[in-house]
Design brief:
alpha/beta; Rossmann fold; 5 helices; binds adenosine monophosphate
């Protein structure tokens, strides 16, 4: 087992978050690593057409989403029994948020689910796929039961 010191668990609060979290905890315990839980609040105004549609969206709404995400991450640490884990909220695209957190928190392993809230029945969800393509460090992808298994 490689000597991972800081493991990043990326969660989108889909129903599988507890399952993915349990795997991350097993890994962290096996190598004595610290856990960092991350949620990325998707920046709704980052694309021009959404900016027009959402022009009335106030900055308060974004603040509210960040605050809500922080509370949900803290609740997840309680559920998973890892109340000493660090909780981080980023704003932007999930891929950019994960890569930023990797750098800022000196992470050496990323744990993601094979599929999240938006997952279609492909082999991998688009967030998991983009993180795998761009990550400078190892990525552990938790296979979710019954999702995206290739047929012979
Ligand atoms: P997806 O590829 O979007 O189906 O999601 C796959 C996995 O990427 C999820 O199970 C999470 O581990 C991670 N993920 C997706 N969206 C986010 C997000 N907004 N913040 C943090 N992690 C995310």
């Amino acid at each position: 087992m490689p000597d991972f010191k800081r493991i990043l668990l990326a969660v989108d609060f889909s129903r599988d978050s507890d399952f993915i979290g349990a795997r991350a905890i097993e890994l962290a315990q096996a190598c004595g690593a610290r856990l960092v839980l991350l949620h990325v609040v998707v920046d709704l105004k980052s694309q021009w057409y959404k900016r027009i549609l959402l022009s009335s969206l106030s900055d308060d709404v974004e603040e509210q989403l960040i605050d809500d995400a922080r509370k949900r991450l803290e609740a997840l640490t309680q559920n998973l029994g890892v109340s000493d884990a660090t909780c981080v909220v980023e704003v932007g695209s999930p891929k950019a948020g994960v890569l930023k957190a990797v750098e800022e928190h000196d992470i050496d392993l990323i744990v993601v689910g094979s599929h999240g809230v938006g997952g279609v029945d492909a082999m991998l969800g688009s967030t998991a796929d983009s993180i795998l393509h761009r990550s400078p460090i190892d990525v552990f992808v938790v296979r979710l039961p019954g999702r995206g298994v290739a047929q012979e």
